[in-house]
Amino acid sequence: MTQEAQNDKFCLSRRAFLLSGGTAAGIVAVTGIPGLVDAALQTATYPRRKIGQVSKLKVDVPLVVQYPGKDPNSMAYLVKLGKSAGGGVGPKGDIVAFSTLCSHMGGPLIGTYKGKHKVLGPCPFHLTTFDLSRHGLVVAGQATESLPQVRLEVKGDDIYATGVMGLIYGYHDNLAIQG
Ligand code: FES
Which of 5, 57, 127, 179 is most deeply packed, by most CB within 10 A? Predict the structure, then answer.
């Protein structure tokens, strides 16, 4: 088989991908490279953990909670913003939670919440500020990645953390022990 033919065999054309339904199974069928799919489909299984109660939260008074891991650096800010937010839960959709480690180089963000603007920051290291009402988007500063947001659910009065969107700074896996 010529080099060109070999390349064609392993090359995933747009047309072939669309014809396969654009699925992981389609990738295996077309490429014959199962490892590629394993990597694509690998997702963390997060603990579902109660981290607070709706009735106990006051607007603009954040709580520091342990999530997602048991590592001392694996902490999140749980805050009721008082206005609806991306990913917000509760009757007003205004309860959100975010990693306390800056996405740039892990600067500690505890104590930097500004209720007036619903932001976390500026980070003490390089001054990045994150908008908690818009999925932790960078408002200003050095970071290029949003602040990882904790996925929340409310059942009755209880608030549960069920996962994290985004990689927490310093971890190769959000559930790993940092070392
Ligand atoms: S570590 Fe936060 S801005 Fe650099």
Answer: 57
Banded pLDDT at 178 (limits 50, 70, 90): low
Residues 131 and 74 in one domain: yes
pLDDT digits (tens, 9 = 90+) for 43-56: 568 999 999 999 99
Distance 104 CA to ligand 1 centre (A): 5
CB 124 near ligand 1, within 6 Å: no
Q: What would the DSSP string read from start to end of 49-110? A: EEEEEGGG--BT--EEEE-SSSSTT-EEEEEE-SS--TT-BTTTT-EEEEESB-TTT--B-T
Verify whether ligand 1 is closer than 6 Å to residue 109 (CB atom).
Answer: no
Are residues 121 and 127 in contact, defined by beta-carbon separation less than 8 angstroms?
A: yes
CB distance 99 to ligand 1 below 6 Å: no
* pTM of model > 0.85: no
Pick the atom of ligand 1 nearest to 127's CA.
3
Please report whether residue 179 resides in a domain.
Answer: no
Q: Same structural domain for residues 79 and 149?
A: yes
